[in-house]
Amino acid sequence: MILKRQSSDEPRMRTRLIHGVGHTGRWDYNHHVVPPMTASATFRLESAERGAQAFSEYVADDNDPRTHSPIYIYDRLDEPTRGMLEDNLAYAECGEVAVCFATGMSAISAALCTLAHQGEHIVAHAVLYGCTYSLVTTWLPRYGIQHSLVDMSDMDALRTAITPRTRVVYLETPVNPDLKLIDIAAVRGVINAVNADRDADARVWIVVDNTFATPFCQRPLEWGADVVCQSLTKGIGGFGTDVGGALIGPRSLHREWILYRKDFGGSLSPKCAWPVLVNGLPTLATRMINHQKTAMHVATFLESHPKVARVCYPGLPSFPQHELARRQMTDYRGHFAPGSMVYFELCDAEGLGRPAVRFIDWAAGNAYTLTLAVSLGQIKTLIEAPYSMTHAAMPAEEKRRRGLSPGGIRMSLGLEDWHDIVADLDAALVQA
Ligand SMILES: *Cc1c(COP(=O)(O)O)cnc(C)c1O
Fold first, then answer.
1. N or C: at which end does the chain have fewer Cβ atoms within 10 angstroms?
2. 397, 387 in Cβ contact below 8 A?
3. Does ligand 1 have an atom closer than 6 angstroms to the CB of 212?
4. Whole-model pTM?
5. From CA 414, how far away is CA 295, in angstroms rounded?
6. Could you say which architecture CATH assigns to the domain 48-283?
7. Does ligand 1 come within 6 angstroms of the Cβ of 231?
8. pLDDT tens-digit readout, 132-173
Protein backbone atom coordinates (compact mmCIF):
# COMPACT_ATOMS: atom_id res chain seq x y z
CA MET A 1 0.00 0.00 0.00
CA ILE A 2 1.23 3.46 -0.86
CA LEU A 3 2.49 5.28 2.17
CA LYS A 4 0.78 8.66 2.21
CA ARG A 5 2.76 11.72 3.12
CA GLN A 6 2.07 12.41 6.76
CA SER A 7 1.07 15.94 7.61
CA SER A 8 2.62 17.39 10.73
CA ASP A 9 -0.64 16.98 12.69
CA GLU A 10 -2.05 13.58 13.55
CA PRO A 11 -5.44 13.29 11.84
CA ARG A 12 -8.42 13.64 14.15
CA MET A 13 -9.92 10.34 15.31
CA ARG A 14 -13.05 10.75 13.17
CA THR A 15 -10.82 10.97 10.09
CA ARG A 16 -8.55 8.24 11.30
CA LEU A 17 -11.43 5.80 11.79
CA ILE A 18 -12.28 6.22 8.09
CA HIS A 19 -8.78 5.92 6.68
CA GLY A 20 -7.44 3.37 9.17
CA VAL A 21 -3.76 2.86 9.81
CA GLY A 22 -3.03 3.82 6.17
CA HIS A 23 0.03 1.70 5.71
CA THR A 24 -0.16 -1.98 6.56
CA GLY A 25 2.32 -4.78 6.21
CA ARG A 26 -0.54 -7.24 6.49
CA TRP A 27 -1.58 -7.18 2.83
CA ASP A 28 0.03 -5.91 -0.34
CA TYR A 29 -2.66 -3.91 -2.12
CA ASN A 30 -1.75 -0.82 -4.04
CA HIS A 31 -4.76 0.20 -6.07
CA HIS A 32 -7.72 -0.58 -3.88
CA VAL A 33 -9.53 2.27 -2.21
CA VAL A 34 -11.44 -0.22 -0.07
CA PRO A 35 -9.50 -3.02 1.65
CA PRO A 36 -10.22 -6.37 0.01
CA MET A 37 -12.21 -9.11 1.72
CA THR A 38 -9.90 -12.09 1.88
CA ALA A 39 -11.28 -15.58 1.39
CA SER A 40 -8.53 -18.12 1.77
CA ALA A 41 -8.68 -20.79 4.45
CA THR A 42 -5.03 -21.68 3.90
CA PHE A 43 -1.94 -19.93 2.55
CA ARG A 44 0.84 -21.07 0.20
CA LEU A 45 4.18 -21.38 1.93
CA GLU A 46 6.76 -21.57 -0.92
CA SER A 47 9.37 -23.64 0.93
CA ALA A 48 9.85 -25.80 4.01
CA GLU A 49 12.06 -23.09 5.42
CA ARG A 50 9.38 -20.42 5.06
CA GLY A 51 6.84 -22.82 6.57
CA ALA A 52 9.03 -23.37 9.59
CA GLN A 53 9.66 -19.64 9.91
CA ALA A 54 5.91 -18.98 9.80
CA PHE A 55 5.20 -21.29 12.73
CA SER A 56 8.10 -20.08 14.83
CA GLU A 57 7.17 -16.42 14.25
CA TYR A 58 3.51 -17.10 15.09
CA VAL A 59 4.33 -18.76 18.40
CA ALA A 60 7.03 -16.25 19.33
CA ASP A 61 4.65 -13.34 18.54
CA ASP A 62 7.38 -10.72 18.63
CA ASN A 63 6.99 -9.05 15.22
CA ASP A 64 5.28 -5.74 14.72
CA PRO A 65 2.87 -6.05 11.72
CA ARG A 66 3.43 -2.39 10.90
CA THR A 67 7.04 -3.09 9.97
CA HIS A 68 7.14 -6.85 9.36
CA SER A 69 4.65 -8.61 7.08
CA PRO A 70 3.26 -11.68 8.85
CA ILE A 71 3.67 -15.04 7.13
CA TYR A 72 0.11 -16.31 6.98
CA ILE A 73 -0.47 -20.03 7.56
CA TYR A 74 -4.16 -20.74 8.09
CA ASP A 75 -7.24 -18.53 8.61
CA ARG A 76 -7.88 -19.57 12.22
CA LEU A 77 -4.36 -18.44 13.24
CA ASP A 78 -4.14 -15.08 11.47
CA GLU A 79 -5.26 -13.56 8.18
CA PRO A 80 -5.16 -10.11 6.55
CA THR A 81 -8.71 -8.66 6.68
CA ARG A 82 -9.14 -9.55 10.34
CA GLY A 83 -5.61 -8.31 11.03
CA MET A 84 -6.31 -4.90 9.52
CA LEU A 85 -9.47 -4.62 11.62
CA GLU A 86 -7.46 -5.52 14.74
CA ASP A 87 -4.96 -2.74 14.09
CA ASN A 88 -7.77 -0.21 13.68
CA LEU A 89 -9.69 -1.43 16.74
CA ALA A 90 -6.62 -1.17 18.93
CA TYR A 91 -6.20 2.40 17.73
CA ALA A 92 -9.87 3.26 18.32
CA GLU A 93 -9.76 1.99 21.94
CA CYS A 94 -6.34 3.65 22.50
CA GLY A 95 -4.81 0.24 23.31
CA GLU A 96 -1.67 -1.53 22.15
CA VAL A 97 -3.20 -4.63 20.52
CA ALA A 98 -6.57 -6.09 19.57
CA VAL A 99 -7.54 -9.71 18.92
CA CYS A 100 -10.86 -10.47 17.22
CA PHE A 101 -13.12 -13.39 18.04
CA ALA A 102 -16.15 -15.00 16.42
CA THR A 103 -18.60 -13.27 18.82
CA GLY A 104 -18.54 -10.93 21.78
CA MET A 105 -19.04 -13.93 24.08
CA SER A 106 -16.04 -15.76 22.63
CA ALA A 107 -13.95 -12.63 23.32
CA ILE A 108 -15.26 -12.39 26.91
CA SER A 109 -14.69 -16.09 27.62
CA ALA A 110 -11.16 -15.78 26.20
CA ALA A 111 -10.44 -12.77 28.42
CA LEU A 112 -11.62 -14.57 31.56
CA CYS A 113 -10.01 -17.94 30.79
CA THR A 114 -6.61 -16.52 29.85
CA LEU A 115 -6.41 -14.34 32.99
CA ALA A 116 -7.98 -16.69 35.59
CA HIS A 117 -7.08 -20.37 35.91
CA GLN A 118 -8.29 -23.35 37.88
CA GLY A 119 -8.49 -22.57 41.61
CA GLU A 120 -8.60 -18.84 40.98
CA HIS A 121 -11.35 -16.28 41.41
CA ILE A 122 -13.19 -13.54 39.54
CA VAL A 123 -15.00 -10.59 41.11
CA ALA A 124 -17.75 -9.27 38.81
CA HIS A 125 -20.38 -6.60 39.09
CA ALA A 126 -23.73 -8.12 40.11
CA VAL A 127 -25.59 -7.00 36.98
CA LEU A 128 -24.06 -8.44 33.82
CA TYR A 129 -25.03 -9.14 30.23
CA GLY A 130 -27.17 -12.33 30.50
CA CYS A 131 -24.72 -14.67 28.74
CA THR A 132 -21.74 -13.26 30.66
CA TYR A 133 -23.71 -13.93 33.85
CA SER A 134 -24.31 -17.56 32.94
CA LEU A 135 -20.69 -17.99 31.74
CA VAL A 136 -19.40 -16.81 35.12
CA THR A 137 -21.97 -18.59 37.29
CA THR A 138 -22.54 -21.85 35.35
CA TRP A 139 -19.60 -22.72 33.12
CA LEU A 140 -16.48 -21.29 34.75
CA PRO A 141 -17.13 -23.06 38.09
CA ARG A 142 -16.97 -26.37 36.16
CA TYR A 143 -13.37 -25.49 35.33
CA GLY A 144 -12.61 -24.55 38.92
CA ILE A 145 -12.87 -20.78 38.45
CA GLN A 146 -14.95 -19.28 41.26
CA HIS A 147 -16.63 -15.90 41.47
CA SER A 148 -18.14 -13.27 43.73
CA LEU A 149 -20.76 -10.85 42.48
CA VAL A 150 -20.71 -7.44 44.14
CA ASP A 151 -22.05 -3.95 43.65
CA MET A 152 -19.05 -2.21 42.13
CA SER A 153 -20.34 1.24 42.80
CA ASP A 154 -19.43 0.37 46.42
CA MET A 155 -15.62 0.36 46.72
CA ASP A 156 -15.71 -1.23 50.19
CA ALA A 157 -17.76 -4.13 48.82
CA LEU A 158 -15.21 -4.55 46.02
CA ARG A 159 -12.26 -4.46 48.44
CA THR A 160 -13.92 -7.03 50.70
CA ALA A 161 -14.70 -9.41 47.81
CA ILE A 162 -11.06 -9.65 46.67
CA THR A 163 -9.28 -12.78 47.92
CA PRO A 164 -5.64 -13.89 47.50
CA ARG A 165 -6.91 -16.05 44.61
CA THR A 166 -8.64 -13.18 42.75
CA ARG A 167 -7.14 -12.51 39.32
CA VAL A 168 -9.87 -10.57 37.50
CA VAL A 169 -12.26 -7.75 38.30
CA TYR A 170 -14.93 -7.67 35.59
CA LEU A 171 -17.54 -5.02 34.86
CA GLU A 172 -19.66 -3.29 32.23
CA THR A 173 -20.27 0.44 32.26
CA PRO A 174 -22.85 1.72 31.52
CA VAL A 175 -24.42 -1.35 33.10
CA ASN A 176 -26.92 -3.23 30.97
CA PRO A 177 -29.83 -2.48 31.05
CA ASP A 178 -30.42 0.44 33.43
CA LEU A 179 -27.24 2.35 32.45
CA LYS A 180 -25.90 2.74 35.96
CA LEU A 181 -22.22 3.76 35.74
CA ILE A 182 -19.20 2.30 37.45
CA ASP A 183 -16.28 4.60 38.14
CA ILE A 184 -13.37 2.85 36.40
CA ALA A 185 -10.74 5.17 37.93
CA ALA A 186 -12.06 4.38 41.43
CA VAL A 187 -11.86 0.62 40.71
CA ARG A 188 -8.30 1.19 39.44
CA GLY A 189 -7.45 2.87 42.74
CA VAL A 190 -8.68 -0.14 44.76
CA ILE A 191 -6.82 -2.61 42.53
CA ASN A 192 -3.59 -0.61 42.63
CA ALA A 193 -3.61 -0.93 46.41
CA VAL A 194 -4.23 -4.70 46.12
CA ASN A 195 -1.56 -5.25 43.47
CA ALA A 196 1.06 -3.27 45.40
CA ASP A 197 1.57 -6.27 47.71
CA ARG A 198 1.46 -8.96 45.01
CA ASP A 199 3.94 -10.66 42.68
CA ALA A 200 3.39 -10.00 38.98
CA ASP A 201 1.82 -13.44 38.35
CA ALA A 202 -0.71 -12.95 41.17
CA ARG A 203 -1.85 -9.50 40.09
CA VAL A 204 -5.50 -8.60 39.60
CA TRP A 205 -6.53 -7.45 36.11
CA ILE A 206 -9.39 -5.06 35.40
CA VAL A 207 -11.54 -6.11 32.43
CA VAL A 208 -14.27 -3.76 31.15
CA ASP A 209 -16.99 -4.61 28.64
CA ASN A 210 -17.26 -1.39 26.60
CA THR A 211 -19.97 -2.60 24.22
CA PHE A 212 -22.67 -0.16 25.35
CA ALA A 213 -20.55 2.97 25.10
CA THR A 214 -18.32 2.04 22.11
CA PRO A 215 -14.85 3.63 22.04
CA PHE A 216 -16.39 6.79 20.58
CA CYS A 217 -18.08 7.53 23.93
CA GLN A 218 -15.61 6.00 26.41
CA ARG A 219 -12.09 4.53 26.41
CA PRO A 220 -11.83 2.41 29.60
CA LEU A 221 -8.07 1.91 29.06
CA GLU A 222 -7.61 5.65 29.61
CA TRP A 223 -9.30 5.32 33.01
CA GLY A 224 -7.11 2.44 34.14
CA ALA A 225 -8.75 -0.74 32.78
CA ASP A 226 -6.23 -3.34 31.60
CA VAL A 227 -8.45 -5.04 29.03
CA VAL A 228 -11.51 -3.97 27.03
CA CYS A 229 -14.06 -6.42 25.57
CA GLN A 230 -16.26 -5.46 22.66
CA SER A 231 -19.16 -7.14 20.93
CA LEU A 232 -18.58 -6.01 17.34
CA THR A 233 -22.14 -7.15 16.68
CA LYS A 234 -23.40 -3.96 18.35
CA GLY A 235 -22.38 -0.31 17.96
CA ILE A 236 -19.00 -0.84 16.29
CA GLY A 237 -20.46 -3.10 13.59
CA GLY A 238 -23.35 -0.67 13.50
CA PHE A 239 -25.48 -2.18 10.76
CA GLY A 240 -26.49 -5.47 12.35
CA THR A 241 -25.29 -7.64 9.46
CA ASP A 242 -22.53 -9.59 11.23
CA VAL A 243 -21.46 -10.95 14.60
CA GLY A 244 -18.02 -10.58 16.17
CA GLY A 245 -16.06 -9.70 19.26
CA ALA A 246 -12.71 -8.25 20.26
CA LEU A 247 -10.30 -7.89 23.13
CA ILE A 248 -8.11 -4.81 23.32
CA GLY A 249 -5.26 -4.51 25.78
CA PRO A 250 -1.51 -4.55 26.40
CA ARG A 251 0.96 -6.23 24.03
CA SER A 252 1.99 -8.52 26.92
CA LEU A 253 -1.35 -10.37 26.62
CA HIS A 254 -1.35 -10.73 22.83
CA ARG A 255 0.46 -14.07 22.69
CA GLU A 256 -1.91 -15.73 25.19
CA TRP A 257 -4.95 -14.43 23.32
CA ILE A 258 -3.88 -15.62 19.86
CA LEU A 259 -2.77 -19.02 21.17
CA TYR A 260 -6.04 -19.43 23.08
CA ARG A 261 -8.00 -18.44 19.98
CA LYS A 262 -5.96 -20.86 17.85
CA ASP A 263 -6.85 -23.83 20.09
CA PHE A 264 -10.37 -22.98 21.30
CA GLY A 265 -11.08 -21.91 17.75
CA GLY A 266 -13.33 -18.84 18.05
CA SER A 267 -11.64 -16.78 15.33
CA LEU A 268 -13.59 -14.01 13.63
CA SER A 269 -14.36 -14.95 10.03
CA PRO A 270 -12.81 -12.49 7.52
CA LYS A 271 -16.24 -12.23 5.91
CA CYS A 272 -17.55 -10.83 9.20
CA ALA A 273 -14.42 -8.72 9.83
CA TRP A 274 -14.75 -6.96 6.48
CA PRO A 275 -18.08 -5.12 7.05
CA VAL A 276 -16.79 -3.92 10.42
CA LEU A 277 -13.52 -2.76 8.82
CA VAL A 278 -15.16 -1.11 5.82
CA ASN A 279 -18.58 0.07 7.07
CA GLY A 280 -18.80 -0.12 10.85
CA LEU A 281 -15.68 1.46 12.30
CA PRO A 282 -15.36 4.16 9.60
CA THR A 283 -18.90 5.42 10.32
CA LEU A 284 -18.77 5.01 14.12
CA ALA A 285 -18.20 8.70 14.88
CA THR A 286 -20.85 9.97 12.45
CA ARG A 287 -23.39 7.44 13.67
CA MET A 288 -22.77 8.00 17.37
CA ILE A 289 -23.03 11.79 17.08
CA ASN A 290 -26.48 11.38 15.56
CA HIS A 291 -27.59 8.53 17.86
CA GLN A 292 -26.75 10.73 20.83
CA LYS A 293 -28.70 13.73 19.58
CA THR A 294 -31.72 11.48 19.08
CA ALA A 295 -31.26 9.77 22.46
CA MET A 296 -31.26 13.17 24.18
CA HIS A 297 -34.48 14.27 22.43
CA VAL A 298 -36.17 10.95 23.18
CA ALA A 299 -35.06 10.85 26.83
CA THR A 300 -36.27 14.42 27.35
CA PHE A 301 -39.64 13.56 25.78
CA LEU A 302 -40.06 10.44 27.92
CA GLU A 303 -39.09 12.28 31.09
CA SER A 304 -41.89 14.80 30.53
CA HIS A 305 -44.54 12.14 29.81
CA PRO A 306 -47.07 11.47 32.62
CA LYS A 307 -47.13 7.70 31.98
CA VAL A 308 -43.36 7.35 32.41
CA ALA A 309 -42.15 6.78 35.97
CA ARG A 310 -38.37 6.83 35.46
CA VAL A 311 -35.95 7.56 32.61
CA CYS A 312 -32.28 6.59 32.77
CA TYR A 313 -30.00 8.31 30.25
CA PRO A 314 -26.52 9.51 31.27
CA GLY A 315 -27.07 12.67 29.22
CA LEU A 316 -30.05 13.85 31.30
CA PRO A 317 -29.23 16.34 34.07
CA SER A 318 -31.56 14.24 36.29
CA PHE A 319 -29.36 11.13 35.82
CA PRO A 320 -28.17 10.25 39.36
CA GLN A 321 -24.53 9.87 38.25
CA HIS A 322 -24.51 12.77 35.82
CA GLU A 323 -21.20 14.10 37.21
CA LEU A 324 -19.45 10.75 36.72
CA ALA A 325 -21.03 10.46 33.26
CA ARG A 326 -19.60 13.83 32.25
CA ARG A 327 -16.14 12.80 33.42
CA GLN A 328 -15.98 9.24 32.15
CA MET A 329 -18.03 9.34 28.94
CA THR A 330 -16.35 11.67 26.48
CA ASP A 331 -15.69 11.50 22.77
CA TYR A 332 -12.24 11.75 21.19
CA ARG A 333 -12.31 15.54 21.42
CA GLY A 334 -13.28 15.55 25.07
CA HIS A 335 -16.96 16.42 24.57
CA PHE A 336 -19.61 14.74 26.71
CA ALA A 337 -20.76 11.54 24.93
CA PRO A 338 -23.59 9.85 26.85
CA GLY A 339 -24.27 7.19 24.21
CA SER A 340 -27.22 5.78 22.31
CA MET A 341 -29.03 3.70 24.97
CA VAL A 342 -32.05 4.78 27.02
CA TYR A 343 -33.82 2.77 29.73
CA PHE A 344 -37.24 3.72 31.08
CA GLU A 345 -40.01 2.37 33.27
CA LEU A 346 -43.70 3.01 32.87
CA CYS A 347 -46.01 3.97 35.73
CA ASP A 348 -47.29 0.65 37.01
CA ALA A 349 -49.37 0.70 40.20
CA GLU A 350 -49.72 -3.13 40.28
CA GLY A 351 -45.98 -3.69 39.71
CA LEU A 352 -46.61 -6.61 37.34
CA GLY A 353 -45.29 -4.99 34.19
CA ARG A 354 -48.65 -5.00 32.37
CA PRO A 355 -48.37 -1.44 30.96
CA ALA A 356 -44.94 -2.33 29.55
CA VAL A 357 -46.36 -5.43 27.85
CA ARG A 358 -49.17 -3.35 26.31
CA PHE A 359 -46.66 -0.73 25.21
CA ILE A 360 -44.32 -3.27 23.67
CA ASP A 361 -47.02 -5.30 21.97
CA TRP A 362 -48.55 -2.21 20.43
CA ALA A 363 -45.15 -0.91 19.30
CA ALA A 364 -44.11 -4.30 17.89
CA GLY A 365 -47.24 -4.49 15.74
CA ASN A 366 -47.82 -0.86 14.79
CA ALA A 367 -44.85 1.49 15.21
CA TYR A 368 -42.87 2.09 12.02
CA THR A 369 -39.65 3.15 13.76
CA LEU A 370 -39.69 0.82 16.80
CA THR A 371 -38.58 -2.78 16.32
CA LEU A 372 -38.97 -5.33 19.11
CA ALA A 373 -35.61 -7.11 19.01
CA VAL A 374 -32.61 -7.74 21.20
CA SER A 375 -29.18 -6.34 20.26
CA LEU A 376 -28.31 -2.66 20.02
CA GLY A 377 -26.22 -0.05 18.28
CA GLN A 378 -27.86 -0.42 14.87
CA ILE A 379 -29.23 2.14 12.43
CA LYS A 380 -32.79 1.01 13.32
CA THR A 381 -34.27 1.81 16.74
CA LEU A 382 -34.67 -1.37 18.81
CA ILE A 383 -36.72 -1.91 21.98
CA GLU A 384 -36.84 -4.85 24.35
CA ALA A 385 -37.96 -5.82 27.86
CA PRO A 386 -34.76 -6.78 29.76
CA TYR A 387 -36.54 -8.36 32.73
CA SER A 388 -38.10 -11.17 30.70
CA MET A 389 -35.78 -11.19 27.68
CA THR A 390 -32.03 -10.35 27.84
CA HIS A 391 -31.81 -10.72 31.63
CA ALA A 392 -33.98 -13.83 31.93
CA ALA A 393 -30.95 -15.82 33.18
CA MET A 394 -30.75 -13.71 36.36
CA PRO A 395 -32.83 -14.92 39.33
CA ALA A 396 -35.93 -12.75 39.87
CA GLU A 397 -34.92 -11.93 43.44
CA GLU A 398 -31.51 -10.69 42.23
CA LYS A 399 -33.14 -8.56 39.53
CA ARG A 400 -35.49 -6.90 41.99
CA ARG A 401 -32.65 -6.33 44.47
CA ARG A 402 -30.67 -4.59 41.70
CA GLY A 403 -33.58 -2.35 40.80
CA LEU A 404 -34.67 -4.06 37.56
CA SER A 405 -38.44 -4.02 37.33
CA PRO A 406 -40.68 -6.15 35.07
CA GLY A 407 -41.90 -2.88 33.56
CA GLY A 408 -38.51 -1.69 32.31
CA ILE A 409 -37.95 -1.02 28.60
CA ARG A 410 -34.54 -0.69 26.96
CA MET A 411 -34.18 1.33 23.78
CA SER A 412 -31.26 1.47 21.39
CA LEU A 413 -31.73 4.62 19.35
CA GLY A 414 -31.22 4.33 15.62
CA LEU A 415 -30.62 6.91 12.92
CA GLU A 416 -34.25 7.66 12.04
CA ASP A 417 -35.47 11.27 12.25
CA TRP A 418 -36.08 11.70 15.98
CA HIS A 419 -39.48 13.32 15.41
CA ASP A 420 -40.74 10.02 13.95
CA ILE A 421 -39.42 8.05 16.93
CA VAL A 422 -41.07 10.44 19.39
CA ALA A 423 -44.36 10.25 17.45
CA ASP A 424 -44.29 6.44 17.64
CA LEU A 425 -43.46 6.49 21.37
CA ASP A 426 -46.25 8.98 21.99
CA ALA A 427 -48.73 6.70 20.22
CA ALA A 428 -47.48 3.57 22.03
CA LEU A 429 -47.78 5.34 25.40
CA VAL A 430 -51.48 5.95 24.74
CA GLN A 431 -51.90 2.17 24.78
CA ALA A 432 -49.77 1.55 27.90
C1 LIG B 1 -24.24 -8.41 22.98
C2 LIG B 1 -23.37 -8.22 24.16
C3 LIG B 1 -22.37 -9.16 24.46
C4 LIG B 1 -22.17 -10.44 23.66
O5 LIG B 1 -21.82 -10.20 22.34
P6 LIG B 1 -22.19 -11.25 21.15
O7 LIG B 1 -21.52 -10.63 19.96
O8 LIG B 1 -23.67 -11.31 21.04
O9 LIG B 1 -21.59 -12.56 21.54
C10 LIG B 1 -21.58 -8.91 25.56
N11 LIG B 1 -21.74 -7.80 26.33
C12 LIG B 1 -22.69 -6.90 26.06
C13 LIG B 1 -22.82 -5.70 26.95
C14 LIG B 1 -23.53 -7.07 24.97
O15 LIG B 1 -24.48 -6.15 24.73
1. N
2. no
3. yes
4. 0.94
5. 9
6. 3-Layer(aba) Sandwich (3.40)
7. yes
8. 999 999 999 999 999 999 999 999 999 999 999 999 999 999
